[in-house]
Amino acid sequence: MSDLADVLKISILGNESIHCGFHLLPYIFHTILTTLPSSTYVLITDTNLSRLYLSDITAAFEENAKKAGSKARFLVHEVQPGEGAKCRKVKEEIEDWMLDEKCTRDTVILAFGGGVIGDLTGFIAATFMRGVKFVQIPTTLLAMVDSAVGGKTAVDTPHGKNLIGAFWQPAYIFADLAFLTTLPPREVSNGMAEVVKTAAIWKDDDFALLESNADAISTAASTRLSAGSTLGRFESDRTEPQSLLLRVVTGSIYVKAHIVTIDERETGLRNLVNFGHTIGHAIEAVLTPQMLHGECVSVGIILEAEVARQLGVLSQVAVGRLTRALKAYNLPVSLSDPRITAIPASSQLSVDRLLDIMKIDKKNSGPAKKIVLLSRVGKTYEEKASVVQDDVIRKVLCEAATVISGIPTKSPITMATPGSKSISNRALVLAALGKGVCRVRNLLHSDDTAVMMNALAELKGAKFSWEDGGDTIVVEGGEGSLTVPEKGRHLYLGNAGTAARFLTTVCTIVNRTSPSTSNTIITGNARMKQRPIGPLVDALSENGASLSYLEGANCLPLEIGANGLRGGHIRLAASVSSQYVSSILLCAPYAQSEIKLELTGGQVISQPYIDMTIAMMAEFGIDVVRQKGANGELLDVYNIPKGVYTSPATYNVESDASSATYPLAIAAITGTTCTISNIGSSSLQGDARFAKEVLEPMGCQVEQTATATTVTGPPLGQLRALGNVDMEPMTDAFLTASVLAAIATLPPLAGREVEGLKKEGSRIYGIANQRVKECNRIKAMREELAKFGVETDEFDDGIIIFGKPLDQLKRGASIHCYDDHRVAMAFAVLSSVVEKTVIEEKRCVEKTWPNFWDDLQNKIGINVEGVELEQNHASTSAHPMSNGTSSTSQHPLFLIGMRGAGKTYIGRMAAQALGGEFTDADDVFAERTKLSVSDFVAQNDWAEFRRVEREILADMMAEKQGNHVIALGGGVVETPEARELLSQHVKSGGRVVYVTRELEEIEGYLDSIGSTATRPKWGEDFSAVFARRSPWYAACSSHEFYNTLEPLAGQSQAEHHHAMRAECERFFRFISGLITNRPDLSSGRPTSFLSLTFADIRPALAQMEELTEGADAVELRVDLLSKDGKAPSTPGLPSPAYVAKQLSTLRLVTPLPIVFSVRTKEQGGWASSTDDKAYLEMVRLGLRSACEYVDLEMAWPGALLEAVQKEKGGSAIIASWHDWTGKMKWDGSLVSDKYAQCAKYGDVVKIVGTAQSVVDNMALAQFVASKEANGKPFLAINMGGHGQLSRILNPVLTPVTHSALPSRAAPGQLTNREVLSGRHLMGLLPAKKFYLFGKPIAQSVSPLLHNTGFTTIGLPYEYGRYETDQTDDEVRRIISSPDFGGASVTIPLKLQIMDLLDSVSDDAKVIGAVNTIIPTSDSVGGTTKLHGDNTDWQAIREAAQAGLAGTQVTGLVIGAGGTCRAAIYALHQLGATSILLFNRTTANAESVAQSFPAEYGITVISSLDTLPAQPNVVISTVPGDSLSLSSGSGIPLPKTVLGGHGGVAIDLAYRPHKTALVQLAEETEGWTAVTGVEILCLQGFRQFELWTGKKAPGRKMREAVMQEYLKA
Ligand SMILES: NC(=O)c1ccc[n+]([C@@H]2O[C@H](COP(=O)([O-])OP(=O)(O)OC[C@H]3O[C@@H](n4cnc5c(N)ncnc54)[C@H](O)[C@@H]3O)[C@@H](O)[C@H]2O)c1
Ligand SMILES: [Zn+2]
Fold it and tell me: Which residues bind 7-phospho-2-dehydro-3-deoxy-D-arabino-heptonate per the record (predicted)?
């Protein structure tokens, strides 16, 4: 070996040219310089890598060149990181540069980087001077194990990836694993997918290493070493994890090299490495570049393994192992992984689309698709890819399944269902502690058992291996000898409850090996850390074992001393869990003296499970004696003799009896025969009684031996109803019984009838616990059975099902499974006789029977097909039990923050915005404990309070719906357990909002309300508490809401409240994915944002409407903000608290979306360009504050960009790159690289250059046009005076300024008006004409209203009138002319006009009137369509909302003419449940009321004198002089109409200005008046927005109208 490093060499194509190790740079350059002598060495790398390694590389070259006496040149060329560099243009650039540098044929090129660099450099080497030598130095894991090995080189073209290239073998491949330590973790996982894949097809022993050492391997790949460290260079100083990493990586390289060697030109064998790639590539084609190759392959591996499983060539065990292994490396394993579903493109992952992409895979021959089928871990079914039919792939890819109903073709069937979980876990412990080799068959392969095996192996208690492709586990027992794990190694148990309980006692009998490692630590995930284990720990501690809690009391993590178990008398409280009892029983024989176990606490829970443990111990040779009392009654005292278990040679794990009910029920329902071969009358599982106690009375023939059960069903359609049946001992089987009962129509057996129940009724009771399983199963069964037309009823602890003849059941039901395996399998039974039933979420069976659908087909003989659900269908059925708005998130929303921060105020408004409920956790606490918080604390203590509080939190997380808003107590973050719960909630996609306010404001607020008795007082200084909790609140939350208490910018308290309400609505709907609040950037309509350049925006708030005229968004330049209000002069950023406050302030004065930009010095701003922490913190604030757009500069390292992209939530990223140097050319390669990078990270791409001349704008336009097909909105402009043209041309979010701003944000920036008039002059913004149709309209102020708006913004539009009472030819001509921009429609044409339109909104249809015509141009055909809408009702709603405080609405509408319909509709949309309607002629009112649906709750009243309810919104639709306050003329308006606690009175009459209703409202306390002219303005604003897509400049439009109106 070399004295420079220890390397492992692998041969490829006959040469030992692959060298692997750690810290190889000196070795690499020594080898190259001495064996590949040359005059010139050229190193190609990317800028990420050069920043990290170039100085080390240069030093290593120079040192070794000196030693070797070489005078060679060392030239370096850097490209931009990313796939963009793999193109012909960059290849050309490098070649030209090499020619300039006079490189000749003897040049050696070194590729230093990932696959991109390797492929590009290899191709250059292959063609430069007809081929020169080259060396691969891969730096990503993917490159080491895949792309660098095999000689494939290529570049991409716009037609596709890798289309131009060559085979060219490198002289060396140096895999230096130390480079992996700087690789982002996601890239490590990316490569791991290939490593796992290779082991799966070729090396089962490597696979075993990979699956059991994931932590160590990941650690070795990611642990950064201190600078200068060369740890691992020599074998002697390699850490254990490093050796493992080297072993699996070289193992993988070896396989690839071997396959390449025997099959260099890709015939059959080489295709094996495509395992996972056929489906994986199709997924990648849709999700690239957001998902990486390896991530897509990981999902592909599982799906292709499922294809093999379905074809019957691969066992479920193998699929389970693959799944767990990939998950262990943090890779996605299904298309429903949140990392995938979060990507917008994932909506295109339809089955047809994927199959279509696979069709053109170059590895296919003809139309048939080829997939590499695994036959077991480490081996493929054929030595090549196999042809697989489409329907098989379709079945795997589909989320839903349909069962082809029919008689099971395999009857009579004999089968075993998956093993019981309880028995599997016990068998593992017994065999591990026992003597001899035990072959355990039918073990359940679940997370639980995997955790148990890993832990026992870690304790060196036993050895596990697999036989029959994993169907048999071979356990080599350790006879009870166990060793403390290495120091620092914890036994991680996830959420495996049984494993935690059993292992707690197992760890007490571990042997002490050395004094330094005498303790074992067991821990689990956050949920596990909530699950109690106290009674067991108490019992063991009393017996002298040393156990201590490391975090919360009574829960894991636990530190357990290796002191052995003393034995003797142990007392255990057994009323909580029988698993404590079993845990002690199982380990008891290994105590120092014989154990007498006494169960205390009265009632013993789940005795059958204790009996199960004792029975199994007897099978392993230890007989437990249960003591009897004087009268022979059984006592809860057990004697366990000392001894060692003797394992039987084989142990068959009994099937899970609940699973067995499904095949037995299929026999029952189809009239066939099924035998379950390993469950019989001796079974200790309650559900084993299902055959005898449910199926037999239904008319089945049941034969049960001690170990087997056979059921033969009666002829089809002849099942008996059950009458009354107690299913308490087998509650899980009630779903199976229910589907049978659905078609059981014969009368029940004598003695089972229930009085008063119809003969076809089955009344199942004793199943109350089923309401709190995966879902409320009783409710679920009722809802789903109803889809078949089956009637049901329910009572406290049960369900009643009324059977129906089979042929009367409805066909074609689509079953929602509530993510509950038992619902899915039960309905599979029913669908075997009811045609066309669809089971919507077939994957939910994975919990207990992952290959259920395959078994149904292969073992029972009932075919299953995949069906693809319609997108909408799937999403609407996702929350059938939630009422109201459906939210994208299933999890409830939590509010945290200091008491006094306004959680209740905000929470109420949030719940209303989401259409859900609001809960104050304090109320739940009081309800549960029957005590107020302070009383509870007084009677108990704080710790106990926190414990109960946490329990409530965990319950609410599990139970509440997605639109439920819950305010938590201020101190909830005080315990680490609760913080962990909240963090987990956020991690799993939940929303936790930190409601905040400045400290002084909270204190002031609390003082103002005085201290309330219901909450405990602060024991310590308030500001100290605030300081302690603030970072916790921040860390546990996903979002931050800054609560502004005081009105701003001269707003009144009511206006302020209205603004807060609007912002709450926006904020909470935005973070719940219900709205984006962003303009449509793909419409082609030019958009812009105003760049705010204030240091403090507060002085400008009152002006904000004017400043933002015509803008589609507002940019907050965070780096320009400064607390002292002066423009910054040194690099840095203001405090996040200041920014948060500024942002929330801005929100209250503008409804426009915010662009949150932090511009660094290098990119033209004031933030430091080197302080990535400060930058990231600030960008995060933007994301957490729910900004619609967040700017992300591409100058930062990949890891930062990745992090932001991952956390972006609902925000859109504007990925930006600014070139201030003028060096970037729009036709050069840098801009292409930057574009690719921006497109990777951004939802909007923003590239800003600097124009040297006007011509540069042409190059820009061409570049933009070339990227059009990519589809991402692209903001491209040039700075400087010469660049102004580009600002006019750019259609996407052009940054604009305003004359009233202190400075322009960038040189050359134009105002919005300048941009628009520029566009107009260039023909990009043609003039348009707008009209008012109706009669009489001569006096209308609408033209003034809209023309003022158009002029203010700078749009070349004109609004005129056409007076007519017919939709005549002129109207037709106007609306079809090309310059038609839109029209307002008034009396008498509002109904008639509909005939001329292509579409009419639903609102307008219900109201029966169109007042707005909007031409829309079809983006594809370019044809114009006319759409009709109604903005009257929107104006009424808006006016009412502004005057109400979110209270329940009761409406009164006066008048039953045409306009009343808009008023009624608006009230209904406001949530009014009761609407009073008055008209002088009651009959007219009656007929209006009749025409609305009953749910509108309209009551016709004949007099205004006494009202049946007090309205808070009163709307008059009668002419302005009809109502009168004085008796005499007109309809008298009694003062009592405006009573109660106040409200809003709206008069739709336009004249007089102050009608009777308006006058009365102005005089009445608590009432707000809205005049007809105000409604006219509001409806006009909405029209303006529909026509222009821009916010109406309301203040100016209204001012103009009022002036004119009051003049007349
Ligand atoms: N030739 C083949 O047989 C073959 C096989 C598989 C893939 N490929 C090709 O490989 C390419 C993908 O390769 P990749 O996954 O290595 O991506 P990559 O080359 O783009 O590298 C990923 C990222 O990690 C950075 N990086 C690389 N090494 C680093 C290190 N040690 N520390 C910090 N950062 C580091 C890079 O700058 C880059 O940003 C694709 O173009 C693909 O087509 C080729
Ligand atoms: Zn691959």
Answer: 130, 146, 152, 162, 194-197, 256, 270-274, 277, 293, 362
**Binding site as annotated, residues:** 46-48, 83-86, 114-116, 119, 130, 139-140, 146, 152, 161-162, 179-182, 190, 194-197, 256, 270-274, 277, 293, 362, 897-904
Express each pLDDT in 532-554 by its tens digit: 788 899 999 988 888 999 888 88
Question: Ligand 1 centroid to 136 CA: how many Å?
Answer: 12
| Beta carbons within 10 angstroms of residue 1566's beta carbon | 12
Active site residue 395: no
Residue type at 632 in one-letter notation: G
pLDDT tens string 1153-1174: 999 999 999 898 999 998 999 9
In the reported structure, the alpha carbon of residue 280 is separated from the centroid of ligand 1 by a whole-number distance in angstroms of 18
Q: Which residues make beta-bridge pairs with 43?
A: 76, 110
87: β partners? 156
- Catalytic annotation present for 266: yes
Q: Which ligand is nearest to the CA of 256?
A: 1
Query: Which residues lie below 8 Å from residue 242, measured CB to CB, with a gap of 6+?
Result: 22, 177, 220, 231, 232
HSE value, Cβ hemisphere, 13 Å, CA-based, for 1379: 9
Cβ–Cβ < 8 Å for 1257, 1281: no
Q: How far is CA 1264 from the centre of its chain?
A: 33
Strand partners, 800: 763, 793
Residue nearest to atom 33 of ligand 1 (CA): 183
| Terminal Cα distance for the chain, rounded | 103
How far apart CA 1109 and CA 1128 sit, in angstroms, is 27
DSSP of 1006-1058? HHHH---TTSPPPSS-HHHHHHHHHHHHHHH-SEEEEPP-S--TT--HHHHHH
- Lining ligand 1 with CB less than 6 A are 46, 48-49, 52, 81-83, 86, 113-117, 119, 139-140, 142-143, 146-147, 150, 152, 161-162, 179, 182-183, 187, 190, 1198
pLDDT digits over 1478-1510, tens only? Answer: 998 888 999 899 888 888 889 999 888 888 889
Using alpha carbons, select from 1334, 1358, 1333 the residue that is nearest to residue 1344: 1358
CA 1306 to chain CA mean position, Å? 38
In this structure, what token pair is assigned to residue 1414? Answer: 């909007």
pLDDT per residue over 1186-1228, tens digit each? 999 999 999 998 889 999 998 998 999 999 999 988 888 898 8
Q: Which residue matches tokens 């004198």?
A: 1505
> Residue 239 — φ and ψ, nearest 5°?
-75, 160
Q: Record the tokens describing residue 1444, joined without a space.
A: 């109400």
| Contact status, residue 1359 vs residue 1332, Cβ threshold 8 Å | yes
Average pLDDT across the chain, whole number:
88
- Among the listed residues 1246, 1267, 1298, 1591, the single catalytic one is 1246
Ligand number, closest to the Cα atom of 298: 2
Q: Which amino acid residue places its CA nearest to atom 42 of ligand 1?
A: 115
Ligand 2 centroid to residue 90 C-alpha, Å: 24
Known catalytic residue at 1282: no
Q: Which carries the bigger pLDDT value, residue 1054 or residue 1532?
A: 1532
1187 contacts 1157 by C-beta, under 8 angstroms: no
Between the alpha carbon of residue 1503 and those of residues 603, 1332, 1452, 1547, the distances in Å are 69, 37, 12, 19
Given the CA of residue 194, which atom of ligand 1 is nearest to it? 6
Predicted TM-score of the model (pTM): 0.59
- 1402-1411 burial code (b ≥16 CB/10 A, e <16): ebbebbebbb
Residue with tokens 């392993």: 620
Tokens of 911: 């719940």
Residue 111: half-sphere exposure toward Cβ, Cα within 13 Å = 37
Of 77, 91, 281, 1058, the catalytic one is: 281
pLDDT in tens, 722-737: 999 999 888 889 999 9
* Burial (CB count within 10 angstroms: exposed 0-12, middle 13-18, buried 19+), residue 431: buried
